[in-house]
From TrEMBL:
It comes from Jiella mangrovi. It comes from the Bacteria. This is Alkylphosphonate utilization protein. InterPro entries: YjdM, YjdM_C, YjdM_N. Gene3D superfamilies: 2.20.25.10, SH3 Domains. Residues 45-110 form the Protein YjdM C-terminal domain.
Length: 111
């Protein structure tokens, strides 16, 4: 019997081992068995310490000047459907009336 875990992407039970990785032949997803024990990647937290994830809605907690323009992102602006990225500015989003921009998670709170 196959005592390996199901694929985390497609839930297929046709998983096999390849060296130190587990591989799903149906969707092609590869992962390590140790990765299941600990969450992969960094944890992103807002100004209050709540964990952020892709697709969350956040609220800006401080007026933010936009570099190179005279525009400002005002306190209380809601930003929907965020994407998290690694780097100094870790939130990639689109703000109504302004457009695409990157924000720091320390200047937002989860809504």
């Amino acid at each position: 019997m196959n005592d390996l875990p199901d694929c985390p992407q497609c839930q297929s039970s046709n998983v096999y081992e390849d060296a130190s990785l587990l591989v799903c032949p149906e969707c092609g997803h590869e992962w390590s068995l140790s990765a299941e024990a600990s969450p992969a990647g960094p944890q992103f937290r807002d100004a209050n310490g709540a964990t952020l994830s892709d697709g969350d809605t956040v609220t800006v907690i401080k007026d933010l000047k936009i570099k190179g323009t005279s525009q400002v992102v005002k306190v209380g602006t809601k930003v929907k459907n965020i994407r998290l990225t690694e780097g100094d500015h870790d939130i990639d989003c689109r703000i109504d009336g302004i457009g695409a921009m990157k924000l720091k998670s320390e200047f937002v709170r989860k809504s």
